[in-house]
Amino acid sequence: MCAAASNVPIGDPWTTVDPLGDALHMLRMSGVFYCRSEFTAPWGLALPPFDHSMMFHVVTEGRCRVEVEGADSCLLQPGTVALIPHGQGHRLIGEPGAVPVALVDAPRELVSPRYELLRHGGGGARTSMLCGLVRFDHPAAGDLLRVLPRVICHDVTAAQAEWTRSTLRFVAAEALSLQAGGEALIIRLADILVLDTVRSWFARHPERAGWLGALRDKQIGRALTLIHRNPDRDWTLGSLASGVGMSRSAFAARFTELVGTPVIQYVTRWKMHAAELSLRQERASLTDIADRLGYSSEAAFSRAFKRVTGRSPGSIKRNDDVPAFRL
Q1: Segment 121-159, tens digit of pLDDT
Q2: Whole-angstrom distance, CA of residue 274 vs CA of residue 75
Q3: Cys-Cys link to 294, which of 1, 67, 104, 319 (CB 3.0-4.6 A)?
Q4: What is the CA radius of gyration of the chain?
Q5: Which residues contact 181 (CB under 8 A, 6 or more apart)?
Q6: 261 phi/psi in degrees, rounded to 5
Q7: Residue 213, SS3?
């Protein structure tokens, strides 16, 4: 087993971080498929659900409404970003009464493996948009996304958001011209826009942050950072309590209250997140991962992994659970 961590000093620089910022590192995009849409009134578009994905929409000209079942509709216009965090099916409506066409029936041109152009409408007033379908590398991203609402509309017209408005204008210009290297730029800028929108939502709704609210607690947030940054350590209730300067009983009670999961159950789940990331990114062997995480054998690790994730490590290595990535 890995060395115990009871001697982690409170003042270690690597633990004195912004906990929310640490959590947002989970939202590093592993893939983006995007579409530049050119609509003319009257128009409407119905998008199907996409599992394990987030969708985003940016209007660069004109306006439309985003309608998601179970949520209030929101108006999109230049300077607004809309996220559909759970990949739920939804509609984009150019004007009241417009009958939406299904995405699969809309005329689309595949420009590159990750970029397409869609044109649809009746020939009236123009609306131009950039829409994206996003997946995330980190398996723990789902823990973060679960606390988000069905739709987030982020208005960046405030004076302090000039950099975001500039980013939106740059994304619009790159999507229109698609110069050499433009696709890579759009993907990275979309990453920034998604993170800024999620961060802004948490800032506006701290009471709805779910387990992320625990990150604001000085001691429990610190314990979460220790677990997140060092999943290979043999964390115990005692070592974590000592590491944040609390008694075992007080720490266990407050952790469960704020996080919603007992300490060791959370530690085990995070170890499996780390294992899944290694399987996907490093293509590491099961023996190496089992040894790194402190399991006595590959079989013991495989049983724990399937119990926590519902999947076998082999299915992750084969990418059996990765859906086709296409609008």
Answers
A1: 999 999 988 888 888 767 777 777 888 899 999 887 654
A2: 39
A3: 1
A4: 22
A5: none
A6: -145, 140
A7: helix
pLDDT given at position 12: 46
Helices (H), 137-244: 141-145, 162-177, 182-204, 218-229, 237-243
Burial class (CB in 10 A: 0-12, 13-18, 19+), 35: buried
The 8-class DSSP code of residue 273 comes to H
Neighbour-count burial of 7, counting CB atoms closer than 10 A to its CB (0-12 exposed, 13-18 middle, 19+ buried): exposed
Chain mean pLDDT for the chain: 82
Q: What is the DSSP letter of 3?
A: P
Q: Say what the pLDDT of residue 88 is.
A: 95
Convert the pLDDT of each residue in 282-307 to its tens digit.
Answer: 777 888 999 999 898 999 999 999 99
The residue written with tokens 């789940």 in the block is 269
Of 113, 107, 110, 114, nearest in space to 132 by CA: 114
pLDDT of residue 176: 65
Structure token pair of residue 293: 């995480």
Instruction: Decide: 272 and 308 in contact? Cβ < 8 Å.
Output: yes
Q: At what angle do helices 218-229 and 248-259 cross, to 10 degrees?
A: 80
Distance CA 148, CA 25 (A): 16
Share of the chain above pLDDT 90, in %: 38
